Amino acid sequence: MTGPLEGIRVLDVSTILAGPLVAQILGDFGADVVKIEHPTKPDGMRGHGLDKDGHPLWWTMVSRNKRGLTLNLGNPDGAEVFKRLVADVDVVVENFRPGTFERWGLGYDVLSAINPGLILLRVTGFGQTGPYSTRPAFGTLVESMSGFAHLTGEADGPPTLPAFGLADSLAGIAGSSAV
């Protein structure tokens, strides 16, 4: 595929929607994207939502323009392989809870020492620092906490969530722009 990001190499180690959408958009613009999944715990999007002829539609969309690789980043051997891959890429997209990459010996300090020009995009619900940073977050939680769910739906009805991953999608679009 050609496009304005042709020649840019991306490692996508994120799951579900916001992070993988970042990498999918980068791939849509021509980046070479490798999706890395845990060997026994694949991305939850593989089984999310409707399917057609046995192919999950969300997974088909968010994994397009990507090549796949399995690697256990929490295992020291897997982390070493990852570090070798990082030496030859431009971008890493991850969305683990803050501190996870560091616990695995893959924090930005380590990765940028291997590849000084590396862009590490970290997609989290509450950022890497701050009072809520250790809390898990999903789009529905963000849509609720932001007041979006309260403002939608019927005036005399309960809060209503959007019919698709709105917060995750907005985070993915913003993240791809940030890269």
Summarize the structure.
The chain has 179 residues and is an alpha/beta fold. The protein is built from eight helices and seven strands, in the order βαβββαβαβααβααα. It has a five-stranded parallel sheet, covered by helices on one side. A two-stranded antiparallel sheet has the order 3-4.
What would you say this structure looks like, in words?
The protein is built from eight helices and seven strands, in the order βαβββαβαβααβααα. The radius of gyration is 17 Å and the shape is globular. Strands 5-2-1-6-7 form a five-stranded parallel sheet, covered by helices on one side. A two-stranded antiparallel sheet has the order 3-4. It has a single domain, classed as Crotonobetainyl-coa:carnitine coa-transferase, domain 1 (Rossmann fold, 3-Layer(aba) Sandwich). Helix 1 (18-28) packs across helix 8. With 179 residues, the protein is of the alpha/beta class.
Defining key terms:
five-stranded parallel β-sheet, alpha/beta, 179 residues, 8 helices, Rossmann fold, 15% strand, single chain, two-stranded antiparallel sheet
Number of strands: 7
CATH architecture: 3-Layer(aba) Sandwich
CATH top level label: Alpha Beta
Rg over C-alpha atoms, rounded to the nearest angstrom = 17 Å
Total domain units: 1
Q: How many helices does DSSP assign?
A: 8
